[in-house]
Design goal:
single chain; 1263 residues; alpha+beta; eight-stranded parallel β-barrel; four-stranded antiparallel β-sheet; 26% helix; globular; signal; WD repeat; GH_1_N_CS; repeat; Glycoside hydrolase family 1 protein
């Protein structure tokens, strides 16, 4: 015990020492243990490019983990060929239909020239299957099909497909049995090189050795494509795929290996299949979302033209090696994708559009036949979007093709787009940019150019004479140096073939037979009549296959191959009892009752041939190489046979909805619903006002007849005037309004007492026709019997066929039918008809009656020649796999929702108000009254709708005009301040090198950040208010990212040699854009680790010195202020859209409105301007403040951004109304010296703060 007591004084003194340290305010310190190091991590940041050195099985498994589980087919080993029949069944002219014959008897004795190569073709991913077998690495399409929602129309994959990998011997034996002399497959790059480079897969080499050996054994000649869009996924994760120059060497090494091994047996090599896919496929890959984008290129035109650039260089490098070094025995080229265009008229605009269509398709890759460079059209239009070729690269490209290969499927008419090509080409935000040329599958007289293919391939029409014209045009006009030309793909998807439940009806593919017969006729005529040196033709495809974005939906095959697997389906490794025309591949179980073609009867159980079952309940059917969002309707104006860009799936109005024209986007201040005249919420017939039948003193069906089946009561004589207003008009509006309010009985009583009715019988019948979806009767009632009666339309009745069904009305007297309803002044009849038929089309799609919907689109909507962009959107909706997806993509609630009510509301605006009062007329009048009140209320500062009981007026005393707090956190000029988005904090920056953050309940200081070495010019809050970024002047020239909660500096970005002036956060919160006066980093995007992601610049070699910048709230626009120019960028694609010049002023600050439409720009010479972002149109100017020598920042403020506020060099705060008048509201004495910035509280419109040269921050509220 004594020993323990002896230690007590020691512990007491130790305690006193610790207490003293605590009292003295010392901070605990922590040291890093030896042997450890620290780093910061951001899991949401994009990976950076790297050089792969790990080619292990673990690394390969990591790549496959990006794809997920892969299905295995029923065949997992090579199958020996089974005997083929000596003859195949074919149409029998005696029972009862013969073969499709030629239309050119003069060709009966004409033969193909000696040496002409012909056969069929396909590609590895589309037919091989065996997705993960024998060491194959994943391709980009393995990931797209498995991981990306809606990338493939029917959710199928290339996991199994035709199992050609295992059944190639059977397939080649069948070709030999059919007398087919040649086959053009593609080899799989990720099968040879699972990582795109590195070690070669031994199993792949053995497999393709065996394939080539089988070609030799069967006597079938191979023509091999080295790359058909199955880029190794590893190259995307490593450096970004075809948007990085490294892929040129990796492709070269792959091609060099394959050619060196097999050239002795291959006559023709195609390096690349259709490099034009960089446009309509590659540029829409979801880089950075479903797989990494290590080089920061995530799609759009930048990806499109980088992909095309490196594809062309990769081909050229291989071709040069093949001839100059390897001395190959065969010929080498790449396959172009293109279609023939003919000018729609002799106008110069149509001729120019024709040439632009050629330039942006095959001309883009025409360098081998010219000087090696891109066409001037592309260079003039694209500017810095088009990578520049060096002279060495041009020399490499020139002459790199031994013959011209063209995949020519169809033809189009080219026409000038609205506004002309020049206006489009100078505006990167134009929807037609960069092609700026229209095309259509309609002839100048409005008739389709030929029979249509399957509806999901809406760009494909059979136009045989076009191929002949195209072959001549290529070899005599576009590229006269071409020695010979080969049609390397042509084929046709039989309409609705994927929907048949038995094989028998699919065997009668008359349109496909017609297509091949007449295309071959035209190729013969081209050779013998036009003397074009056509040396080959390859039909697409050997059998049904995976058709990229359309999956298994479309059938191009000369053979049926029905084994398709869905991305979320269990591997089909259990044999099915269903028979197959390829007996080595058992089918998946048959689906229940797939939907049949609208114009064919369902097959019966007595079909002589067993049905090849489909793997899902979705109709099966397409080829071609577009994603499910792509659709080239015959009315699409900006097209080259396939769309230049998919429809965003696609291009909609800026408000994100697909409304009808004339739809008022402005909502009422009153809490109303979208009800029709005399309506309740039900979309069906209206019970109460359905009885109020009579109506209009200005028409023969005049006031008075009947209500509820009885005579309208006699009305005592009243003045026709009601306090200066027309009594009838007021009464009818009241009847409508009572019905809108739900007081139908009161509306009926007013009808009875007044003798006035809301509408006549024709209007009532028209309303019921629209609300009941009787579109034939609705059109007839609206326009009369004879209007637009030019062949009828597609009936909604499922029992009806495709005949003329828009005939006589079934319920309205002939006298009413003949006349139609009078239209309002300026109404567009075609537009109204378009609205009706659009609703009809959408309802057919909702029913999944795709055949009739397509007929409506082609025969009824397109001939109206209305908004072609909207037609493009409607066309793309054919690709929706379900009614729910249709509603989502169209922003449309279906036939049972409010869509018919909305349609009626829109139509009513174009009908004479004397017959049909515009919908909710009283609401519209009240809204105008309130808008007038608000506009004339100088101090209006509330988001609440004004009361109708009294005239509205906001009192001046309720407006923030008094300083209630003076914050003294700085000791020098305060340059900027900003509230957090939630309004709970206020941050200010100062010349004194500090940032002060206040909480806004008591405005107590939370943090004083003092790590900057120079004055702090600007700050910006992150979207979630957890961070701020601050910008620093000379000499530090840096930006810092801070944690708001702790006040610690998270990142210093110090790459600048000149001051940082401004910064803004991307909406995602994962990147910042910093503006500076730096010549190298003037306007750049950085991640939160301080890594440069992207540099914005007008030209490659130009620098930008940024005064201010802002990103719109919706994340669509970046506005950058230079000294006397404004640059506007599409922030998502990073493309510069427009540039506005201001020669006589210096620009100092910019703020973007909350609706992302307008920018508020401050400039010297005492000017502030409100400007439309996308057009540069000045909307309003604000005058009074002084700004000559210093940076003064203006901003929006108040409820609904009703005000514009700015500091001034005279020490005042100026406030204006943000309306058409731009009236000055107040000029408040605020600070000594300049007022540099003002910030309005985001959640309390009665409060704002100002910052001045006196080192003070003042908080303002009402007196």
């Amino acid at each position: 015990m004594a020993h323990r007591l002896a230690l007590l004084p020691f512990f007491c003194s130790l305690s006193a020492l610790v207490t003293a340290q605590s009292v003295n305010g010392s901070t605990p310190t922590f040291t890093l243990p030896s042997g450890y190091r620290t780093a910061s991590f951001n899991a949401s940041a994009q990976p950076t490019a790297f050089n792969r050195t790990d080619f292990s099985e673990n690394a390969l498994n990591e790549l496959w983990n990006l794809v997920g589980p892969v299905a295995t087919g029923p065949v997992t080993t090579t199958v020996e060929a089974t005997p083929e029949p000596s003859a195949y069944s074919q149409p029998d002219a005696n029972h009862f239909h013969g073969l499709v014959g030629s239309n050119h008897p003069e060709l009966n004795d004409v033969k193909l020239p000696k040496g002409f190569k012909w056969g069929v073709s396909s590609s590895s991913y589309q037919i091989e299957g065996a997705a993960k077998d024998e060491g194959k690495g994943p391709s980009i399409w393995d990931l797209l099909a498995h991981r990306v929602p809606n990338q493939v129309l029917d959710n199928s994959t290339g996991d199994v497909v035709a199992s050609h990998y295992w059944l190639y011997k059977q397939d080649l034996a069948r070709l030999r049995g059919l007398g087919m002399p040649a086959f053009s497959p593609s080899f799989s790059w990720p099968r040879f090189l699972p990582f795109g480079h590195g070690p070669v897969n031994e199993a792949a080499v053995k497999h393709y050795d065996d394939v080539i050996s089988e070609f030799v054994a069967t006597g079938i000649r191979p023509a091999v494509t080295l790359f058909h869009w199955d880029t190794p996924l590893a190259l995307f994760t490593e450096y970004g795929g075809w948007t990085d120059r490294r892929i040129v060497d990796d492709f070269f090494n792959y091609a060099k290996f394959v050619i060196s091994r097999y050239d002795a047996y291959v006559d023709e090599w195609f390096t690349i299949n259709e490099p034009q896919y960089c446009n309509w496929q590659y540029s829409y890959y979801p880089a950075g979302k479903y797989y990494p984008a290590p080089n920061g290129v995530t799609g759009g035109d930048k990806a499109r033209f980088l992909c095309g650039h490196y594809t062309l260089l990769a081909h050229a490098k291989v071709a040069k090696w093949y001839h100059d070094e390897f001395k190959g025995r065969g010929r080498i080229t790449f396959k172009n994708s293109g279609n023939y265009y003919e000018a729609n008229s002799t106008s110069a605009g149509d001729e120019e559009s024709r040439q632009r269509n050629f330039d942006f398709s095959i001309g883009w890759f025409g360098g081998p036949w010219t000087d090696g460079d891109y066409p001037d059209t592309l260079k003039d239009t694209l500017g810095d979007l088009l990578p520049e070729l060096t002279q060495d690269e041009k020399d490499l490209i020139k002459g790199s093709c031994d013959f011209f290969a063209i995949d020519a499927y169809s033809s189009f008419m080219a026409y000038e787009i609205d506004g002309g090509a020049e206006a489009c080409a100078s505006n990167r935000s134009h929807p037609g940019f960069p092609e700026c040329a229209g095309s259509t599958s309609l002839s100048p007289i409005g008739f389709p150019l030929g029979p249509a293919a399957d509806p999901t391939m809406s760009w494909l029409y059979s136009a045989p004479s076009g191929i002949r014209k195209f072959l001549k045009h290529i070899t005599t006009e576009l590229f006269p140096s071409v020695p010979d030309i080969v049609v390397t793909e042509f084929g046709f998807s039989e309409p609705f073939e994927g929907q048949w439940t038995s094989i028998a009806p699919a065997l009668w593919d008359l349109r496909r037979a017609d297509y091949f017969q007449h295309y071959l006729d035209q190729i013969l005529l081209s050779i013998h009549e036009d003397k074009v040196n056509v040396t080959g033709a390859w039909g697409w495809a050997i059998f049904d296959n995976f058709e990229w974005g359309q999956g298994s939906q479309v059938r191009f095959g000369l053979h049926a191959a029905p084994a398709f697997v869905l991305a979320d389906e269990i591997a089909p490794n259990v044999p099915s009892p269903n028979a197959s025309d390829r007996p080595t591949i058992p089918h998946s179980p048959a689906p229940p009752s797939p939907e049949l073609s609208a114009h064919e009867p369902p097959s019966t159980d007595n079909d002589p041939v067993a049905a090849p079952a489909a793997p899902s309940t979705r109709p099966l059917a397409p080829k071609r190489r577009r994603g499910s969002q792509d659709s080239d309707d015959l009315s699409d104006p900006i097209e080259r046979g396939r769309p230049s860009r998919p429809i965003k799936k696609r291009r909609r109005r800026t408000d994100g909805t697909m409304r009808l024209d004339s739809d008022a986007s402005k909502r009422s201040h009153s809490p109303t619903q979208s009800y029709t005249n005399g309506s309740t919420r039900s979309p069906g017939p209206r019970s109460a006002l359905g009885k109020i039948a009579n109506g209009d003193s200005h028409r023969p069906e005049s006031n008075g007849s009947y209500t509820s089946g009885s005579s309208v009561a006699s009305v005592k004589a009243l003045s026709s005037s009601f306090f200066g207003h027309d009594r009838e008009e007021v009464t009818r509006i009241l009847i409508q309004s009572l019905s809108d309010l739900g007081y139908s009985d009161a509306a009926g009583a007013l009808v009875k007492e007044s003798g006035y009715t809301l509408e006549g019988p024709t209007v009532a019948a028209f309303r019921n026709a629209v609300l009941n979806g009787d579109w034939a009767e609705a059109e007839e009632l609206l326009f009369g019997t004879n209007s637009y009666h030019n062949g009828g339309g597609i009936h909604l009745d499922s029992a009806a066929g495709y005949g003329k069904t828009w005939t006589q009305s079934r319920s309205i007297a002939q006298s009413h039918r003949a006349e139609g309803l009078p239209l309002a002044e300026g109404a567009n009849r075609d537009e109204m008809l378009f609205w009706l038929k659009q609703q009809k089309y959408l309802e057919l799609l909702e029913r999944r009656d795709l055949g009739k919907a397509l007929m409506v689109l082609r025969q009824e909507l397109t001939p109206l020649h209305q908004d072609v962009g909207r037609l493009h959107i409607l066309s793309s909706l054919m690709m929706c796999p379900s009614a729910d997806d249709l509603k989502l993509q169209a922003v449309w609630d279906g036939a049972d929702g409010e869509s018919r009510t909305l349609l009626l509301s829109e139509l009513s605006k174009s009908i004479s108000p004397s017959v049909m009062i515009p919908e909710h007329r009283l609401v519209g009048l009240l809204d105008e009254v309130k808008d007038g009140w608000i506009s004339n209320c100088l101090y209006h500062n509330t988001a609440d709708s004004p009361s109708l009981y009294i005239d509205h007026n906001c009192e001046r005393d309720d407006f923030p005009m008094k300083t209630v707090l003076e914050l003294k956190g700085h000791h020098d000029e305060v340059w900027y301040l900003k509230y957090s988005h939630d309004g709970t904090k206020l941050a200010s920056t100062s010349k004194d090198k500090t940032i002060v953050i206040y909480e806004t309940t008591t405005y107590k200081v939370l943090h004083q950040l003092d790590e900057h070495d120079s004055g702090v010019t600007h700050l910006a809050w992150s979207p979630d208010d957890t961070k701020i970024i601050t910008c620093c002047a000379q000499q530090e020239n840096s930006a810092r990212i801070w944690d708001v909660k702790t006040g610690t500096c998270l990142r210093l970005i110090s790459d600048f040699t000149y001051p940082c002036t401004t910064a803004a956060w991307a909406p995602s919160g994962t990147h910042v854009v910093i503006g500076s006066q730096d010549t190298k980093y003037g306007c750049c995007m950085w991640d939160l680790d301080g890594h440069l992601v992207h540099a914005f610049a007008p030209h490659h070699n130009d620098s930008v010195r940024v005064n201010d910048l802002a990103i719109s709230a919706d994340g669509s626009r970046l506005v950058v202020l230079l000294e006397n120019k404004i640059h506007v960028y599409d922030f998502r694609s990073r493309e510069k859209l427009c540039e506005w010049h201001f020669d006589d002023v210096k620009l100092t600050s910019v703020t973007i409105s909350s609706d992302s439409r307008h920018m508020l720009v401050s400039m010297n010479k005492n000017r502030i301007r409100l400007i439309e972002i996308d057009t540069g149109r000045e909307v309003q100017g604000y005058e009074g403040q002084i700004q000559e020598n210093f940076i003064i920042r203006s901003t929006f403020g108040g409820a609904d951004e009703n005000f514009v506020v700015s500091g001034s060099e005279d020490g005042r705060v100026y406030i204006w109304r943000n309306n058409v008048n731009g009236l000055l509201v107040e000029a408040l004495d605020a600070h000594e010296g300049c007022v540099n910035a003002v910030a309005w509280h985001p959640s309390d419109p009665r409060c704002f703060a100002s910052a001045g040269d006196d080192g003070r921050v003042r908080v303002w509220r009402p007196r």
